[in-house]
Amino acid sequence: MSGAGDRFPSTRHSMLAAVQGDDQAARQLGWDALVRAYWKPVYKYLRLQWRADAEAARDWTQEFFARALEKEFFARFDPQRARFRTFLRVCVDGFVHNERAAQRRQKRGGGSTIVSLDFPTAEGELQGVEPPAPDRLDDYFHREWLRSLFEQALLELQRACAAAGQQRRYEAFRRYDLEAPDRQQKLAYADLARELDATVAQVTNWLHATRAQLRTLLLARLEQLCATDEEFRAEARALFGAGPP
C-alpha cells in the first residue's frame, strides 16, 4: 500500500496534545482515541507478562487508564527519550508494581467516561499465545499496538464503504486481501468479478481504491498516536516499508 508519489502528513494536533490540553471536549476525544488504541495491547501484556488472570487483567486495564487520566501520568512523557508506546508500557509496569504492593483495587476516574472494551475478544486472541521473552517485550507490545491500529482502521473502512453504498467494493477487498492466507490461494480477478457480478476492470479499480483508502485511514490514525513528526515518519516507514527521505 505504498507508492512513489505518497506523502506523509505532518503531525499537528495529536492525541497526546489533546489529552494534555485545556479544552475538556478535546481532552475527552483524545482520551477515547488513546484508550481505543492501547487498551488491548495493555490487557494482553498484563495477561502474558504479569501472569494476571483474565479478571485481574480486565480490572487492571480499566484502572490503569482511569488512574492515568486522573493522575496525568502522560504529562511526564518526553518524546526525546522514548516513543510513547514504550513510555506507556513502562507506566503499566509501575502501575502493576504499586497495585500488587498495595493489594487493593480502588476504582477511580474523576467522572471520566472510559471507552467500552471488548475483553472477551481480546481474551480469545490470547489462546495458545506464549509469553514473550524478556528482551522482546517492546516488540510484542508494538505488534499488538499495530494489530489494534489495523482493526480500527478496517472497521472504519467497512463503515465508510457501507455508508457510500460501496459494499461490493469492500467485499472484493475483504475476499482478496483479508481472507486468503497467501497469494497462491487467492481468487483470480476473473473469478472474483464473476462472484460479485462485476467486470475485471471494476474489481481491479475497487482493490486499488480500497487499499489506498485503508492506507489513508491508517496514516491518519497513526498521526494522532505519535508525539512528534519524527516519530510519525519512523512509525509510518516501519508500517509501510517506504516513505519520504
Description:
With 245 residues, this protein is mostly helical. The chain has one domain. Helix content is 65%, strand content 0%. α2 packs antiparallel against α3 and α8 packs across α9. The radius of gyration is 20 Å and the shape is globular. It starts with 14 loop residues before the first helix and ends in a 5-residue tail after the last helix. The N terminus is likely disordered.
List keywords for this structure.
mainly alpha; 245 residues; 10 helices; single chain
Helical content class:
55-70%
Low-confidence stretches: 1-13, 107-113
Q: Count the E strands.
A: 0
Outline: globular
Determine the oligomeric state from the structure.
Answer: single chain
Number of helices: 10
**What proportion of the residues form beta strands (DSSP E)?**
under 5%
Mean pLDDT across residues: 85
Q: What's the alpha carbon Rg, rounded to whole Å? A: 20 Å
Largest sheet: none
Distance between the termini: 17 Å
Integer count of domains: 1
Give, in order, the helices and strands: HHHHHHHHHH
SS-derived structural category: mainly alpha
SSE layout and pairings?
Layout: H1 15-20, H2 24-48, H3 54-71, H4 84-102, H5 119-125, H6 137-163, H7 167-179, H8 189-195, H9 200-224, H10 229-240
Question: What's this entry about, in short?
Answer:
The protein has 245 residues and is mainly α. The chain has ten helices and no strands.
